[in-house]
Amino acid sequence: MPNKNRISTFDVTFKNSKKVPFQRWYPYIEGYSPNFVFNLIDKYCKDATLIYDPFAGTGTTLFASDKKGVNTIFSEVNPLLRFLIDTKVMVMSLSESERRKLASDLKALIPIILTEVEGYEPSEELNLSYVNTFGKSLYFEAEQYLLILKLRSYIDHKRKNNQSLIADLLTVAVFSLLLPVSYLKKQGDVRFKTEDERVHQEYMEDLLPNKLEQMVEDIENFSYSISMKHTMICENAKNIGNAILNDKISSVITSPPYLNGTNYFRNTKLELWFLRHLKTDADLRFFRDEALTSGINDVKASYIRKCEQLNSTTLKLTLAELDCNAYDKRIPLMARCYFNEMLQIFSGLSNKLENGAYLLIDLGDSIFSNVHIKTDLILAEVLNDIGYKLEERIILRQRRSRNGTFISQVLLVMKYYRNNGFI
Questions:
Q1: Which residues make Cβ contacts (< 8 Å) with residue 337, sequence separation at least 6?
Q2: What's the CATH number for 15-86+236-421?
Q3: How far, rounded to the nearest angstrom, does the alpha carbon of residue 67 sit from its chain's CA centroid?
Q4: Of 38, 48, 54, 194, which sees the most CB atoms within 10 A?
């Protein structure tokens, strides 16, 4: 007999979200599916009244918790993802009549938008920010680039004419297509497409009408509506200690950036540019400094002053190996910073949790220079000293690395006990 509580390996990736209304608007392969959150709430948080996600991503925890009748608070440092969450929340909060009107207005644009856009001047502001941010890098064919600049002007015109939500929806539609119509491809990190891949190049003119039709269909899907309260408590989870809450948090459900060398902001640079969050090349550095240190390019030499002595035997042994074997001296520093900042987040969070609150973390380990960084085990050791006790370690997925070592995606199930369980 199948185990109803067993978590599907497809639920712990974005794969099962590709057809989910609203989730499918923007492909975020780092995310998990709503089914994953449903499973966690049913198993560990049935009586939860407030759930916190410190790394909200595209809002999966929020929207899944809403279906379960639970309020949430969240943090998300990437303004692209915050924009996406806000837009989805606004749409799902509308009344039935308002949503039907919105869907009708958006649907009416589909057959005419490309013709209308041709009548607009390309956004000189967006063009200037491209040059100042990306220099001579060519990410689009000339005609595609011109169309994108005109779409920016067209959307701005909609906003100025009191069509803010239509403008937001068009913005989401366009930025979700920037990567497919560019010379870039997301495969792990963003990279340039090969010559063979460019043979199958996609174009905004073909993709935009289909994306808008998809969004219209989802807006008309009234089984996806907001009934609970969902609030961004602070943008950066590293500042949660300064946030003011009226109620204690019952549970934490999240998937933090993995310690895998990925540059999460560089992977969304085209979208951030279109949203006007990148004006110069220094802006990417700003966002990397704000984010959790999880990639090699996130590290700065000055970070060594931030790294405290962390109480983890596994971490000490791992860092000793990295110091000896790492091909880049930033790798051990990256690991030190990662766990130091995770400690900062969960230390700041601790006085906002109910006693006995569950901490459910989806996390993956990594390998650098043949050194296995057992991220989940190290994090459990680091957090143990401040009251988070490991209850279960569930392996969600496994694959072999290049050197044959198994790399695991793990669910850490921890409980918070105030004063380490002592009264």
A1: 293, 298, 299, 303, 306, 307
A2: 3.40.50.150
A3: 20
A4: 54
Task: Give how far the C-alpha of residue 349 lies from the chain's centroid of Cα atoms, to the nearest Å.
Answer: 20
User: Token pair 């759930």 is at which residue?
Assistant: 51
pLDDT in tens, 386-408: 999 999 999 999 887 777 788 89
Q: What is the pLDDT of residue 405?
A: 81
Residues in the chain: 423
Kindly tell me if the per-residue pLDDT of 57 is higher than 70: yes
Question: Whole-prediction pTM value?
Answer: 0.93
Tell me which residue of 80, 81, 101, 251 sits closest to 166, measured CA to CA: 101
**CA–CA distance, 249 with 357 (Å, rounded to integer):** 7
Assigned token pair, 386: 């401040």
**Alpha carbon distance, N-terminus to C-terminus of the chain:** 43
The reported pLDDT for the residue numbered 32 is 86
The residues spanned by each domain of the chain are: 15-86+236-421, 94-219
Handedness of CA 26, 10, 363, 411 (dihedral sign): positive
At residue 134, φ and ψ (nearest 5 deg) are -105, -5
pLDDT, average across residues 222-237: 96
Cβ atoms of 372 and 325 within 8 Å: the answer is: no
Task: Report H helices in 135-254.
Answer: 142-160, 164-177, 195-198, 204-219
Amino acid (one-letter) located at 314: T
State the DSSP string of 100-116.
Answer: HHHHHHHHHHTTTHHHH
Residue 233 is given by DSSP the state: -
Residue with tokens 């497809």: 10
Alpha carbons 271 and 178: distance in angstroms, whole number: 7
DSSP structural state of residue 245: -
CA distances from 39 to 7, 34, 410 (A): 7, 9, 15
**25, 215 Cβ separation under 8 angstroms:** yes
The per-residue pLDDT for range 9-41, each reduced to its tens digit, is 555 554 555 678 999 999 887 778 899 999 999
Quick one: 220 exposed, middle or buried, by C-beta within 10 A (0-12, 13-18, 19+)?
middle
CB neighbour class for 285 (10 Å; exposed up to 12, middle 13-18, buried from 19)? middle
What is the rounded distance in angstroms from the CA atom of residue 52 to the CA atom of residue 49? 10
Contact 376, 410 (CB under 8 A): yes
Cα(129)–Cα(410) distance, rounded to whole angstroms? 40
d(C-alpha 205, C-alpha 7), whole Å: 39
For CA atoms 240, 243, 244, 246, the dihedral sign is negative
